[in-house]
Amino acid sequence: MTQAKYSLDHIRLRLNQLDDQLLNILSERRALSIEVAKSKVETAKPVRDAAREQELLVKLINNGKEKYQLDANYITKLFHTIIEDSVLLQQSYLQNLVNPQDSRQPLVRVAFLGSKGSYSHLASREYFSRKNNELIELNCHHFKDIATTVETGHADFGVLPIENTSSGSINEVYDLLQNTTLYIVGEMTLPIEHCLLAQQDIRIEDIKTLYSHPQPHQQCSEFLSHLDGVTLESCASTADAMKKVKALNRNDVAAIGNSSSGKLYGLQKIQGNIANQTENHTRFIVVARKSVEVSPQIPAKTTIIMSTSHQAGSLVETLLVLQRYGINMTKLESRPIMGNPWEEMFYVDLEAHLDSQPMQQALAELTKITRHLKVLGCYPIENVKPTSIDLEV
What we know:
- By secondary structure, the chain is α/β, with parallel strands linked by helices.
- The protein has helices at 8-43, 50-68, 72-98, 100-103, 119-129, 143-151, 171-179, 214-219, 221-224, 238-248, 259-264, 314-324, 357-369, and strands spanning 107-113, 134-140, 157-164, 168-169, 183-191, 195-198, 209-212, 231-234, 253-257, 268-271, 281-288, 300-307, 328-336, 344-351, 372-380.
- It folds into 4 domains: 8-98, Chorismate Mutase Domain, subunit A; 100-192 and 281-288, 3-Layer(aba) Sandwich (D-Maltodextrin-Binding Protein, domain 2); 195-271, 3-Layer(aba) Sandwich (D-Maltodextrin-Binding Protein, domain 2); 300-380, 2-Layer Sandwich (Alpha-Beta Plaits), CATH 3.30.70.
- The strands form 3 sheets. Strands 1, 2, 3, 4, 5 and 11 form a 6-stranded mixed sheet that branches. A 5-stranded mixed sheet has the order 8-7-9-6-10.
- The longest helix is centred in the first third of the chain and has 36 residues, at 8-43.
- It is globular and about 80 Å long.
- Residues 109-289 form the Prephenate dehydratase domain.
C-alpha cells in the first residue's frame, strides 16, 4: 500500500490556503473588469468582444495543457463562468451610468409569486443579487396580484415567470401583459430542478396526494403518469405546496419543488430529476412602472405586442418588415384578445435596441400596417451565451 506523502490535515490546510488565494485573485480580476467597463465608456466599444473572448480561451486551453496538464473541458467550464460574471459586471456598471436613479436605490421592494423558497422567489434573489440591491420581499398568491402591487406603487419591481423549456409559455402571464401599464425592464433564466419532497423518507408507492403549482405538474407529467392512485392538488406556488406538506405532517403526502427550498420547510428529497426534460429552465421577466434606458454598448432585447388585420398574409407582412431590417425574432406568441372573439394579440421578442435606427424604422413601418402596436419594454440581455470555440485546439 502506497504511503501518503502528506497527512490529511496538512493537505486540507494547503487546500484552504490555495482556495483563499483563488478568492483573492478572482476579486482582483472582478475589479479589473470594472476598469475595462470604464475604458469602454470612453471608447464606446460594446461589452462583448467575441474575437477577444475566443482568443483568450484558446490561449488558456493551450497553456493549461502544456504547463499544468489541465483538461480543456475543465478550463472551458471555469472560464465560461468567469467571462459571464465579467460581462454582467460590465453591463451593470454601464446600466448604472444611464440609469443613475437606480444606482441610488440600494433598497428595493420586489413582488413575486408564492412564499419564501418558491422558484419565483429564487429568481428574484438571483436577479437582484447582481445589482447589489437589498430586498424587501413581497410574496403574492396570484400573477395579477404581482402586477397590481407594482402598479399601485407598493412594490418597485415584479418578477413573473413567462415560459418554460418543458411546459412552454405561461399563458396567464401573457394575458396579463395585454392590459398592464407596466414595462419589462429585465429578464433572467433559472434552472429548474424538480424533486419529490416529503416530511420523511417514504416510499413513492405510499404517496396518496401530491401538492405543487400547476406548472410543475405539467413539467413532470411523464413521471406523474407512472404513479398509481395519486391525487394531484394545485397550490399557489411550489413553496405553498411545501408548507402544506409540512403542516399535514403525514407519511402519504409529498410536494414537487426545489430540494434546497424544501430544507427551509424541513422536507427531504425522496427522488430527484423528475422533470420531463433534463435541461429544464424557466425564463422570468422583471416589470416596473417606468421603462429603463439601455446603454447602446449592451446587447438588448425589445418586446412588443401587436394585432394585425384579418386579411390573408397580414402577419407575414409584419415579419417581412423585421427581416428587411435584419432584426432577429426570438419569440412569437399569440393570445386571444379579451372581449374580441377570434381576434389575437401577438407578442414578439426582438434582439434589438429600441433606439437603434433599424428598430425605429421597423416600428414606423409596423405602426402603419398593424391595428395596434405597443412597446412593452427594452432591456439588457442578461443570458450570457458561452463563447464558442473548437475544443480541438
